[in-house]
Amino acid sequence: MRLSPRAAGLLAAVVTVAVWTGFVISARASARYTLTPFDIAFLRFVGAGLVLLPWGFWLLRRHGLRGSLGVSPLPLGLTAGVGLTAGLLYSLGAYSAFFLAPAAHGAVLMPGSLPLWTTLLAAFFLGDRITPLRAAGLALIVAGDLMVGGPSLLQAFSGDGGRVWIGDLLFMGAAFSWGCYTMLVRRHRLDAVHATIAVVAFMAVTYVPAYALLALTGTVASGLAAAPWLEIVTQMVLQGLLSVVVSGISFTLMVQYWGPVRSTMVTASVPVLSALGAVALLGEPLYWNLLAGLALATTGIVLGVLSSRASPAPVAAAPQEALR
Asked: Which residues contact 252 (CB under 8 A, 6 or more apart)?
């Protein structure tokens, strides 16, 4: 049974919110175990590659597509673009941030600031208009981000800030990188599966072999040799199969059906669910400034959703169109 565009968009949103919430909680929990952030990024794309690289090879051979790297359905330039933004920069920034700052910070600063970056990038590169209601929502998002990350920055300036503020900045940088990816998806009308395979293909020929060599030679500190197999397999499933394969495709489907701004606005429940999940499952404290920032950012996202309802949803591109 084929779903209508609206039903497919709603289903993609539900799946994306669920996986993103689990990503925030599980990534923060990873800091308590053996693996480093770079190890987790390595396992993320090894796990995803086990599924997507054969899929990409099959697509190229079966449909006669002209791709790149032997498995990517996209041209080399686009493969590098989506690989750098949704692959290398996003994963390294996000995982490193979770080792420095609480999950509640990531819950607000990543999905919370994503609509801000996406709106600004869409206005600059795609000519999207920022309505007054959307501007008000963005102002609330900025206020919420400052409420969460501001105290860490102020403590850093006083010389007693630890490293939390670095994690906060990395969260913001990861969100910006993912916002750039949404622009590439929208501008080139990329097919969901093709774009996700391209991300993994790029990482499979760049980061994965390079990091494996550095870890084997002891050039970089790695916990891969010391980590139990259960931890390694768990990371490959959670961060690879679910966070890359499942949510990568579902998020790209959202962008196709709803557009980049509305897609990122739809994730309004992720900060709330992630912050509460970190309190319940990880025992992290939820201070007043985090609650206030969470409320401001979530309200801003909701306003952005309301401001986008009047905009027509873009039609998804056919797989062949994505390669032109």
From this structure: 185, 190, 191, 192, 195, 196
